[in-house]
Every structure is written in C-alpha cells, then in structure tokens.
Specification:
GO terms for molecular function: methyltransferase activity. Belongs to the methyltransferase superfamily. L-isoaspartyl/D-aspartyl protein methyltransferase family. The protein is an alpha+beta fold. Helices cover 25% and strands 26% of the residues. Strands 7-6-5-8-9-10-11-17-18 form a nine-stranded mixed β-sheet.
Length: 383
Amino acid sequence: MSHWGKTVDDLVARKVVGPGWVQVLKEVDRTGFTPDTVYAEVPGSVRRYEEVTRSAEPDRWARLVTSPEAVVTQLGRSTVDGGPVPVSSSSAPAAVGAMLQALDLQPGDRVLDLGTGTGWVAALLATYGARVTTVEADPVLAADAAERLARFPEVTVVCGDAINGHADDAPYAAVHAGFAVRRIPAAWCVQTRPGGRIVTPYGSLWSPTGLTRLVRDRDGVASGRFSPRAVNFMWERGQRPVWPEPAGGPARTAASPVDPRFVLESRSGRWATGLQLGDVTFDPVPVGGDRVLRLWALDGSAAAVQVDRNRWADGDGVSQVGQRSLWDEAVAAWLWWTEAGEPNRDRFGLTAGPGEDDVLWLDTPDRLFPRPRAGARPGSPVG
C-alpha cells in the first residue's frame, strides 16, 4: 500500500471521513496538487524553513507530501520581525477530511471553495460530484491552480477576495473556507441558499483552533455548533494582524490571582478565553531560559507575567502597560470558562448574519457568550 493510501486509511480508522469520501481521497492523491518546491521547518528551530525540491530530494519531498501533516507551499514575511512565515499550504488531510464531511454534500451541489491554494480541495469536491467555484486572492497561486484543475470541467477558478465570495455563481449549497476567520463575512451568508452549510475554521489571535458548521435559514442568518476536533489554519490574508509597538508609559504591577500555567493548559480553555479577548495574543512560555508569559493587543497594550515557581503571586508578578490590563482580562475570561464547568468547544455555537455581529453562545442560542473585551471584536480586519 502507498504512503498516501495509509494516510487515507488512518482517516477512516479515526472516523474522520465516511465511506462517501474514502474513494475520492484515494483517487485524488495530494501529490498531484503540490508544487515541486515545498518548505520544511528546520528541526529544533523557531520559524526557520528550508526548501525541499522534488528534483533534488524526491524521497523527502514525497514523504512530506504523503504525510498526515500540512505542507507549507509558500512563505511570506512576518509583520512582527520580518522573519519567514507560512502564507499558503496544503492543509493536513485530517482537517480537510473533517471539513469535507461536514459539508454534507450531494452530487450536483454547487460549492463555493474559498482559498484555492494548490487546488487539491477543489479537485476533491469535483471528484465527489460537486460543481465548484474556487476563489484565490494570490494571482500566481490562482493561475497555477487553474492549470492543475484544467481537467476538471466542473471547477471554475476565480482570482479575487474570498471574503466577498463570488456572487455570479450563487446561491451555493455549501461554502468551504480553507483559512481561519474571526468573523463570518456577510457575503457568505447572502450567497448560501436556505438550508445550505458554511464550514470554516474560526477563532481568535489567542487560539485559532475552532471549526464551525453553520446552516443558513430563510432570513439569511446562519447558525450552528463548533466541532470537537481542533484545527489550525492560517488566517485569511486580510485578517493577518499587524502588531504595533508596545505602549509606553509606567508599568502597573500586581500579583496574579491564578497560576498562569492554568490559563494555558487546556486547549478548550485557551479557545474559550481567546474568543472573549478578541485582539489579544500571547507568546508561549519557553521550556528553558526566560520564564515570562507575554501578552499583546492590537492597541499596543501589553502584559508580562512571571511563571517561575510562585513569582506570579508576588506583588510585582504581573507588569502591564497601555490603556488595558490584558492579564486581568485574560484571567476574567478564563474564570468564566471554569465557572461554566470547563465546557469543550463542541458545546459552543455561533450565529451570524448580514449586518450583524457574530453571536457566540453556550449550549443554546439564548445562553450568550461574554462579548469580547475592550478591543477589536473577533473578525475585525486588522493590518
């Protein structure tokens, strides 16, 4: 059995995909939709990548492409320090499979695929029997994908802004986004037919790891729950944050009311906390060396929390600058999650519609999630 066949069989064993998608995934091998140059992170490094070309290292290239991991296909420059960061990839097969399954398609359905990338997902959808309109913002990627997809007459490749969808081919039975957002764009709801599905990664700068499936009603409102599966996708190009210089002025010091490790130890807790913070991110605490947890917000507010032993409980364990007290916000958001019984992400839901802010809820739409604190709402375009 091929490496790719083993990857697909693993998705079946884990119940990521049902029978309808198995043959499609085996038939449309990712290998045929991956460029000859990909990028591998240097082991043990922090954001260092090296080229792996099909011609120079065919075996290594093949191992990467047939693996169960995402494959980086394009690098850009970080808005923080100018270092290399992935800006396009071929997503992990498990994430792709989970999203395809959630679309709940019937052969002949018209699907809007957003973030074409290599064109692999559009090919999977077409092979399943869907009529596909796929939208890619990068003109080079769009042209390359169109060439790979030329043998699929059911696929139309459009170079454009995926946030705007593509009204010409609407309405769609389903919308699939291959990138993360912090707010559901109104165009997606408008262009989805009543009863249609919107499947997209959704999260915050703090933890972009939720996957939601929304169903659109006759009034243009889409609502649904989050999947229990964690996913990790790149941000939509227009929502990549540009971080300002940290705010100046005197620091406010205090003790932390909780061990900062508690705030970070649960994926569901980080995810629920991040949805309340909106425009805040953090640096993971390193294993050795500097034991300080740092937080930033898009308005320049910042916080530093001591992690070593009980330093966080000292009078100067937390240092905060700027208009906001970010650590106080993070603790309050985390405490809400603990007091709610530490719910997993699949107990949360989302309602979105044209002209409305997204509404997050717990268990039922009438049990509202706390609104984001102080800064940008989830989905506010930045940078």
